[in-house]
Amino acid sequence: MNTLDQLVLASHNAGKLKELQAMLGARVTLRSVGEFSQVEPEETGLSFVENAILKARNAARLSGLPALADDSGLAVDALGGAPGIYSARYADGQGDAANNAKLLAALADVPDAARGAQFVCVLALVRHADDPLPILCEGLWQGRILHQARGDHGFGYDPLFWVPERDCSSAELAPADKNQISHRARAMALLRQRLGL
């Protein structure tokens, strides 16, 4: 597997592409599935693993290249793991600000001690669309949800995610720092190990 020099990332998210490319290193070039199609597959899986595999297979089918998919989200303890696999669409597809506002409203009366959360990332790599043995790597990042947004970096729920070991929000971390400790960084470290990079 370490002969891969190009992978298609099953995402149209420019922030995710930049973040994952930085973590993957220079030996592998990540290309967006957007170069091949603007159509996104319906995420019909009931878990991060199922959705990651579904997206990777779709990107490989569209591009004819090996594909990497990231399915990630925020699992909040007080909400029974929600928004979970629906993190990006939590506020009916209205974007990051609406998702964050909905999360803050859902946790309005929840005290700090019960605001535990974790970012979850599952990376799925397929050599081709019908690959019977996808490589799966998972990363978890523990923290808690703040009462208001802090910081200007990152995307998604980063401004609301408190990182105890750094005493700041994820959005207050410099991108290079985040890329060393985040859920994606942890999953990517495992993937690099599997690929011998």
Automatic annotation (TrEMBL):
<feature type="binding site">
    <location>
        <position position="71"/>
    </location>
    <ligand>
        <name>Mg(2+)</name>
    </ligand>
</feature>
<protein>
    <recommendedName>
        <fullName>dITP/XTP pyrophosphatase</fullName>
        <ecNumber>3.6.1.66</ecNumber>
    </recommendedName>
</protein>
<dbReference type="GO" id="GO:0017111">
    <property type="term" value="F:ribonucleoside triphosphate phosphatase activity"/>
</dbReference>
<comment type="similarity">
    <text>Belongs to the HAM1 NTPase family.</text>
</comment>
<keyword id="KW-0546">Nucleotide metabolism</keyword>
<dbReference type="GO" id="GO:0009146">
    <property type="term" value="P:purine nucleoside triphosphate catabolic process"/>
</dbReference>
<dbReference type="GO" id="GO:0036220">
    <property type="term" value="F:ITP diphosphatase activity"/>
</dbReference>
<dbReference type="GO" id="GO:0046872">
    <property type="term" value="F:metal ion binding"/>
</dbReference>
<dbReference type="GO" id="GO:0000166">
    <property type="term" value="F:nucleotide binding"/>
</dbReference>
<dbReference type="InterPro" id="IPR002637">
    <property type="entry name" value="RdgB/HAM1"/>
</dbReference>
<keyword id="KW-0378">Hydrolase</keyword>
<dbReference type="InterPro" id="IPR029001">
    <property type="entry name" value="ITPase-like_fam"/>
</dbReference>
<feature type="binding site">
    <location>
        <begin position="155"/>
        <end position="158"/>
    </location>
    <ligand>
        <name>substrate</name>
    </ligand>
</feature>
<feature type="active site" description="Proton acceptor">
    <location>
        <position position="71"/>
    </location>
</feature>
<feature type="binding site">
    <location>
        <position position="42"/>
    </location>
    <ligand>
        <name>Mg(2+)</name>
    </ligand>
</feature>
<dbReference type="GO" id="GO:0035870">
    <property type="term" value="F:dITP diphosphatase activity"/>
</dbReference>
<feature type="binding site">
    <location>
        <position position="178"/>
    </location>
    <ligand>
        <name>substrate</name>
    </ligand>
</feature>
<keyword id="KW-0479">Metal-binding</keyword>
<dbReference type="InterPro" id="IPR020922">
    <property type="entry name" value="dITP/XTP_pyrophosphatase"/>
</dbReference>
<feature type="binding site">
    <location>
        <position position="72"/>
    </location>
    <ligand>
        <name>substrate</name>
    </ligand>
</feature>
<comment type="subunit">
    <text>Homodimer.</text>
</comment>
<keyword id="KW-0460">Magnesium</keyword>
<dbReference type="GO" id="GO:0005829">
    <property type="term" value="C:cytosol"/>
</dbReference>
<feature type="binding site">
    <location>
        <begin position="11"/>
        <end position="16"/>
    </location>
    <ligand>
        <name>substrate</name>
    </ligand>
</feature>
<feature type="binding site">
    <location>
        <begin position="183"/>
        <end position="184"/>
    </location>
    <ligand>
        <name>substrate</name>
    </ligand>
</feature>
<keyword id="KW-0547">Nucleotide-binding</keyword>
<dbReference type="GO" id="GO:0036222">
    <property type="term" value="F:XTP diphosphatase activity"/>
</dbReference>
<dbReference type="GO" id="GO:0009117">
    <property type="term" value="P:nucleotide metabolic process"/>
</dbReference>
<dbReference type="Pfam" id="PF01725">
    <property type="entry name" value="Ham1p_like"/>
</dbReference>
<comment type="function">
    <text>Pyrophosphatase that catalyzes the hydrolysis of nucleoside triphosphates to their monophosphate derivatives, with a high preference for the non-canonical purine nucleotides XTP (xanthosine triphosphate), dITP (deoxyinosine triphosphate) and ITP. Seems to function as a house-cleaning enzyme that removes non-canonical purine nucleotides from the nucleotide pool, thus preventing their incorporation into DNA/RNA and avoiding chromosomal lesions.</text>
</comment>
